């Protein structure tokens, strides 16, 4: 085991932590917008729902079911050519945001759709009976009623994204996963690995606590 050098490690750690936060933040922001829009479209176009469209629903459902089961590692490898085309490189934190966004988008779409479907059908029917348009029912009844669970669902996804950024590190994506692999495992420096593990646990716990607090305030 190599002797741990704190002075040399700290700059690498802060850089890796920053890369993890960038990957998580950028991917989550983009995925939240895309995923929520997909979820609203899925919900509204369901058979028998506000804007029923069986073709649209079938296509969206198929695409989400096609992407969702594929492990992030496989998605990232499959999109290396696309990331090179978009970012000029297939490696690094910015390039990793593309597969992270795609995987998170479909996960958010499915989680949010589930929350929307759980809204009391009686409330939706009452809104429609009062003459509200389908779009108004969606934004004034369905979304507000499901907002608390939606925030908890988004919190689950952002935590999963932190885990995925660690996997991205194995593909040269940077971040804490890259630090643990190249400066911990490859050099048999297990102190580095444990510090990274602790940092990830603290980060995840912090994000979960923030999400829980926001959800509680909304539900109250």
TrEMBL record:
Main localization (coarse): membrane
Ranges annotated as spanning the membrane: 21-43, 55-82, 94-112, 191-210
PROSITE patterns attached to this UniProt entry: ABC_TM1
Gene Ontology biological process terms, A to Z: D-methionine transmembrane transport
One cellular component term from this protein's GO annotations in UniProt: plasma membrane
CDD domains linked to this entry: TM_PBP2
Leader peptide range in chain numbering: none
UniProt topology in membrane: Multi-pass membrane protein
InterPro entries to which the protein is assigned, alphabetical: AA_ABC_Transporter_Permease, MetI-like, MetI-like_sf
Pfam families named among the record's database cross-references: BPD_transp_1
Domain ABC transmembrane type-1 positions: 17-209
Alphabetized UniProt keyword annotations: Cell membrane, Membrane, Transmembrane, Transmembrane helix, Transport
Record's subcellular location: Cell membrane
Protein family according to the UniProt entry: Belongs to the binding-protein-dependent transport system permease family.
Name recorded for this polypeptide: ABC transporter permease subunit
Organism: Protaetiibacter intestinalis
